[in-house]
Amino acid sequence: MKQEIDLLIKPEFVDAYKDGYPLLTRESIANIDKLGKQGQILNLVDSKKKFIAKAYYGIQNKGYGWVLSLDKDEKIDSSFFERKIVDAIKYREDFYSDSYTTAFRVFNTQGDGIGGLSIDYFDGYYLITWYSEGIYVFKEEILKALKSAVKYKGIYQKKRFDVKGSFLEDGEDFISGSTAPCPLIVKENGVNFAIYLDDGAMVGVFLDQREVRKTLRDKYSKGKTTLNTFSYTGAFSVFASMGGASKTTSVDLAKRSLAKTKEQFSINKIDASTQDIIVEDVFHYFKYAVRKKLSFDIVVLDPPSFARSKKHTFSASKDYVNLLKEAIKISSKNGLIVASTNSANFSMMTFRGFIDRAFKELKIGFKVQESFSLAKDFRVDPKFKEDNYLKVVFIKKLT
Ligand code: SAH
Q1: CATH number of the domain that residue 159 is part of
Q2: Residues near ligand 1 with C-beta < 6 Å?
Q3: Domain identity same for 237 and 382
C-alpha cells in the first residue's frame, strides 16, 4: 500500500475540487514542495486539514495530477483500478458486440475516472497509453486489473511522458500475451484498417473520427470528387471511395503517407492507382490547384493543432480562417467542406466564428449541414468539458 500525504489546497480552489473538478493545477496547490515523487497519492485538504479529494501526482502538460476519488476511505489499489475498468467496459458493451467495428476506445482518461490513462481496443488487442510518469507508477496494478477484466490476445503500451505528450521510443511497446500481426487488420463500420501496434507513436487510425468517416461515406460522397488534406493514412479518402466518390485526392507532407494510403486502399479492395496520393505541403498544393483551376466537390480539412514544415508554421487557433479560405477557393459550386480540428485551445463557438469569418471575407454564403464532437467511447467528464476537444463541421458552400 502506498503512503498518502496531505496536500494543502488554496481556499479559492476548494469548492471546485469538492464539486468534482478533476485536474490538479499548480496554482491551486499551497505547499508545492510537499508533492514528493510522481505517482504519490495525495489527500487534498483545506486550511483546516479537512479532506477534499484523493489525487495522484503526475506531470502532464500544465497539470500536476488528477483527482481519483472524493471518498476519504477509498484505497487506490488494483481493486480500485479494476472497478474503474469494469465500469468503462460496461459503458461500451454495444461496441464489443458490434461485429462491423472492432476498434474503439475502452478507457478515456478522466472521463472514465483516471486522468492520464487511456486504453484502446483493436480486435482483441489492448493498447494502454500512459500520459505521465505518475500514472506509470501504477502499471502493475492497472495491468492486473485489465487482465482480470477482459479476455485479450495481447497487450501493448505507449509512453507519452514528457510534458508535451510526445512519444517515448524505448522498444517496450509490447507487454503481454501474444504479439499482434503486422499489420493487424481491424474493422470500422465494415471498412478495414491496417494497424501497427509496435511502430512508433501513431498506430494508423485516429479513432475519434469514426462518426465523421461514416457520415462522409453514407451521406455525402456518392459521385463526388474529394480532396483529403492532411490525409495521414488516407482514412477519409477510403471512406469517401467506399461511399462512391468518383475520385479521391489525398495530400500529406509525410513520406510515409504514400505507402500507408496505398495499403489502406488495397486492404479495402480499391485499386490505389485510380486515386491520387500526393506527398506535398498542403499549402503548396492549394496554390497548384488554384493555378490549374482545379475544383473539388468535397474538401476535407483535418490539420494538426500545430505543425511546422520547412516554409510554414500552422497553428489552428491562428491560421484556421486562412486554411478555410484556401479550401473555399478550390471547392465546387455548392461544394462541401468538412472542417475538423482537435485543438483544445478553442471552443466550438470560436470555431464556428472562424468559419463565419472565412466565408464573409470571401463574400460567399454557406450553410452548416451538421457538426460533431467526441463519440460515446471518448467519454468526457461532465466536470471537465474542456476535454471534448474534437470539433467537426460539415459546411455547404452556397454557389
Ligand atoms: N486526417 C488524418 C489525420 C491527420 S494527422 C486522419 O483522418 O487519419 C495530421 C497529418 O498532417 C500528419 O500526417 C502530418 O504529416 C500532416 N501534415 C502536417 N503539416 C502538413 C502540411 N503543411 N502539409 C501536409 N500535411 C501536413
Answers
A1: 3.30.750.80
A2: 206, 209, 230-233, 235-236, 251-254, 257, 281-283, 302, 304, 307, 309, 312, 314
A3: yes
HSE (side-chain half, CA atoms, 13 Å) at 202:
10
Last residue within a domain, chosen from 134, 161, 189? 189
Give the tens place of pLDDT for each residue, 15-56.
999 999 999 999 999 999 989 899 999 999 999 999 999 999
User: What spacing in Å lies between the alpha carbon of 270 and ligand 1's midpoint?
Assistant: 22
**pLDDT tens, position by position, 211-257:** 999 999 999 999 999 999 999 999 999 999 999 999 999 999 999 99
Nearest to 340 by CA among 351, 327, 349: 351
Say how many Å lie between the CA of residue 252 and the centre of ligand 1: 5
User: Could you tell me the residue range of the domain that residue 154 belongs to?
Assistant: 78-189
pTM of the model: 0.96
* Cα 399 to middle of ligand 1, angstroms: 29
Among 146, 162, 152, residue whose Cα is nearest residue 78? 146
Place of cell 507487454: 175
AA identity, residue 221: S
How many C-beta atoms surround the C-beta of residue 178 within 10 A? 12
pLDDT digits (tens, 9 = 90+) for 147-203: 999 999 999 999 998 766 677 777 789 999 999 999 999 999 999 999 999 988 899
Q: Is residue 196 part of a domain?
A: no
